[in-house]
Automatic annotation (TrEMBL):
Domain of life: Bacteria
Naturally occurring in which organism (per UniProt): Paenibacillus germinis
Alphabetical list of PANTHER family matching this protein: HTH-TYPE TRANSCRIPTIONAL ACTIVATOR RHAS (PTHR46796:SF13), HTH-TYPE TRANSCRIPTIONAL ACTIVATOR RHAS-RELATED (PTHR46796)
UniProt keyword Phosphoprotein present: no
Protein name as annotated: Helix-turn-helix domain-containing protein
Pfam families: DUF6597, HTH_18
HTH araC/xylS-type domain sequence ranges: 151-253
SMART domains reported for this sequence: HTH_ARAC
Keywords annotated in UniProt: DNA-binding, Transcription, Transcription regulation
Length: 255
């Protein structure tokens, strides 16, 4: 969200996984920056329902979905490489509840049998982005699990949520996909790490932020009603819990 400011401070690339890995991985992402002789830049990251394998000096680990916006300081000159798994796509590698990764990163060594410092050295020794991807894929491929149809089902559900910004209730989702509510909640806890209720809220707030990015005139009351909120105050509370700012504060940053 609100990448206009960041584009002046860093470069973001997204690369597609090889066909045999695309069942589990959404994309690879690479962030580069050079702020030599400049002030550090605080880049805000909006939460999403995906596990990420992050390769960064001193921080390399596997991170579960976050539930709140967080900030990451960029300073000096650097690079971060990330593997963004599809929602549910990391679970087949570990076969344990992904909810356990919330605020509790997992060691890359425990999953892929490589020391994090060695991984950092090996990835950043590559001078071209496609070579970074190739190296990571060589690391992941021997650990590739069998395909799990639940991953496909979960992504169908999340795609449906993202296409229906006025969707407000988990019960409506259960009716549409003909699945028991408690079964769906357990599935999301086990595979995704966050609840379907939270994914619905995230999709609505992301839609609100995107709408705000594209407009200079804002009617928060109408927007909250369009997104299915019964009152504006509830919408503002949810917006701030995920974006970290009120809609007014966020809108001022986009001007």
């Amino acid at each position: 969200m609100n990448l206009q400011q960041g584009e002046q401070k860093f470069q973001l690339s997204r690369l597609t996984p090889s066909e045999d890995l695309a069942y589990f991985i959404r994309h690879y992402w690479i962030v580069r920056w050079d702020l030599t002789d400049q002030e550090p830049y605080l880049q805000h990251v909006i939460p999403n329902p995906c596990v990420n394998l992050l390769v960064e000096p001193g921080r390399t680990a596997i991170y579960g979905p976050g539930k709140e916006k967080y900030g990451h300081y960029l300073q000096g000159k650097g690079c971060v490489f990330g593997v963004k798994f599809k929602p549910g796509g990391f679970h087949p590698f570990v076969r344990q509840p992904i909810s356990g990764l919330l605020n509790n990163p997992m060691s890359v060594q425990s999953v892929f049998d490589i020391d994090p410092r060695r991984l950092e050295n090996d990835v950043f020794a590559q001078k071209e982005e496609h070579l970074m991807v190739s190296h990571i894929e060589q690391l992941i491929r021997p650990k590739l699990p069998e395909q799990d149809e639940q991953v496909v089902f979960i992504n169908r559900i999340i795609d449906h949520i993202n296409q229906k910004p006025d969707l407000t209730k988990v019960d409506t989702l259960c009716d549409y996909f003909n699945v028991n509510k408690r079964t769906l909640q357990r599935m999301f806890d086990y595979y995704v790490g966050v609840s379907p209720k939270w994914v619905i809220k995230l999709a609505r707030i992301q839609n609100a932020a995107e709408t705000t990015d594209l407009s200079r005139r804002h009617n928060w009351s109408k927007l909250s009603m369009d997104l299915g909120y019964h009152d504006q105050s509830h919408f503002i509370k949810d917006f701030k819990s995920i974006i970290g700012q009120t809609p007014d504060e966020y809108a001022r940053l986009t001007l």
